[in-house]
UniProtKB/TrEMBL annotation:
GO terms for biological process: phosphorelay signal transduction system; regulation of DNA-templated transcription. Residues 7-127 form the Response regulatory domain. Residues 148-218 form the HTH luxR-type domain. Pfam families: GerE (PF00196), Response_reg (PF00072). This is LuxR family two component transcriptional regulator. The lineage of its organism: Bacteria, Bacillati, Actinomycetota, Actinomycetes, Kitasatosporales. Keywords: DNA-binding, Phosphoprotein, Transcription, Transcription regulation. GO terms for molecular function: DNA binding. The modification 4-aspartylphosphate is found at D57.
Length: 220
């Protein structure tokens, strides 16, 4: 049984890379319905051709800053059924987080220098087109670190104090004695820390240890 040809819109400002990618994708059973050089042309091409997936670089003309990923967000909003795969040499964790904010279905973010084979890239394209996710491990790592930084920043001064004392290996009772508060108050602060770090109760994990590790990784 012949595999269905994947309809792709390709956005890449380098004509050499754009033409080369279009040829490689065609060989791998994809139909590049449009290959464009700018973010505005990308948005227009998606609206006109309604592909299954759009491939876009982060930085595109005219400023080569974030036009491509802004266009990806517009496509996600206007055409939620179209998968979006960011394919770039630039890792922008904040933009990756915004792309994933509405859900990870149909989103990919791959780094050009880390894709070893065309077959892997096409497999990722098909996965994103089908509503799946394709994220480079380095992108995931940056997102997790950004999430931990955000969680630490969200702590109140008292919660930071409690967590810092937890990091010293102190029990709730010892923390309460050090801060001259009730043990019950410390328990409430610890629960708030767990909630802000997204640490749910699990028999397999020690939330106290995980919270301390997250805190130390961002403040150490």
């Amino acid at each position: 049984m012949t595999e269905e040809r994947l309809r792709v819109v390709l956005a890449e400002d380098s004509v050499v890379l754009r033409d080369g990618m279009a040829e490689l994708l065609a060989v791998r059973g994809c139909e590049v319905v449009a290959a464009v050089a700018t973010a505005e042309d990308l948005v227009a091409a998606v609206a006109a051709h309604r592909p299954q997936v759009a491939v876009v670089d982060v930085r595109m003309p005219p400023t080569h800053t974030d036009e491509g990923v802004r266009a990806a967000l517009r496509i996600r909003e206007a055409h939620p059924g179209v998968g979006v795969l960011v394919f770039s040499q630039h890792l922008e964790a904040s933009w990756a987080a915004r792309l994933l904010a509405g859900g990870a279905a149909g989103v990919g973010y791959l780094l050009k220098e880390r894709v070893a084979r065309t077959s892997e890239f096409v497999d990722s394209l098909r996965r994103v087109a089908a509503g799946g996710t394709a994220l480079d491990p380095e992108v995931v790592g940056h997102l997790m670190r950004a999430r931990r930084r955000s969680a630490v920043d969200a702590l109140t001064p008292r919660e930071r104090e409690v967590l810092a004392l937890m990091a010293e290996g102190r029990s709730n009772r010892a923390v309460a004695e050090r801060l001259s508060v009730s043990e019950r108050a410390v328990e409430k602060h610890v629960a708030a820390v767990f909630a802000k770090f997204g640490l749910l109760a699990s028999p397999a994990d020690n939330r106290r240890v995980l919270a301390v590790l997250a805190y130390l990784s961002e403040t150490g």
